[in-house]
Amino acid sequence: KEALEIFKESKLGEIDIILMDVMMPVMDGLEAARYIRWSNKENARDIPIIAMTANAFSEDVERSRKAGMNEHLTKPLDLEKITKAVRKYCKKNSR
């Protein structure tokens, strides 16, 4: 929920990427990603969202994609994979 609120209050271009933990107590990351994608914010459909979760089954990856996540990274997190994903999306969105 906190990520959703921060995104909603941000100025356009202030946030380049969202690293979203899927298993959160108040609002899980899948729900937060759906709210971001459905919001009226100008960049809501384009902001890269990367799921970070211990759930590694193919159905978990599919749930992340259906929620609007661009990537699905599993824990324990691999720094090389995170760096590669961030570079991929930040390069794509660089000005």
Low-confidence stretches: none
Tally the helices: what do you get? 4
Global mean pLDDT: 93
Query: How do the helices and strands follow one another from N- to C-terminus?
Result: HEHEHEH
Strand pairing plus helix content: what structural class? alpha/beta
Number of strands: 3
Largest sheet: 3 strands, parallel
Shape type: globular
Termini, distance in Å? 29 Å
Which percent bin holds the helix content?
A: 40-55%
**Strand share of the residues?**
5-15%
Strand order of the largest sheet: 1-2-3
How big is the Rg? 13 Å
Structure description:
There is one protein chain. Strand 2, helix 3 and strand 3 form a beta-alpha-beta unit. The protein starts with a helix and ends with a helix. Helix content is 45%, strand content 14%. With 95 residues, it is of the alpha/beta class. The protein contains four helices and three strands.
In short:
Helices cover 45% and strands 14% of the residues.
Q: Which labels suit this protein?
A:
4 helices, alpha/beta, 95 residues, three-stranded parallel β-sheet, 45% helix
